[in-house]
TrEMBL record:
InterPro entries: KTSC_dom
Pfam families associated with the record: KTSC
Official protein name in the record: KTSC domain-containing protein
Organism: Desulfuromusa kysingii
Sequence ranges assigned to domain KTSC in this UniProt record: 7-64
Length: 70
């Protein structure tokens, strides 16, 4: 999955697959997580948020099933 770099104090890049509704987040420490069942609307809100990290922590981190993949 291709990820887009973002300006964040904790997140390095974010990717999304519309077909599978999988959100991929790479953190600055190098770890990568996949979050499942993330709707396109939530992805768009994340990418358009004033703070990617704050939105992620508030709306995604503990709200979706996830797996560490890297």
């Amino acid at each position: 999955m291709e990820r887009q770099s973002v300006s964040s104090s904790n997140i390095a890049s974010i990717g999304y697959d519309n077909a599978t509704e999988v959100l991929e987040v790479e953190f600055l420490n190098g770890s990568v997580y996949e979050y499942r069942n993330v709707t396109p609307v939530v992805y768009e809100e994340l990418m358009n948020a004033a703070s990617h990290g704050s939105y992620f922590n508030r709306e995604i981190r503990m709200s979706y099933p996830y797996e560490k993949i890297g």
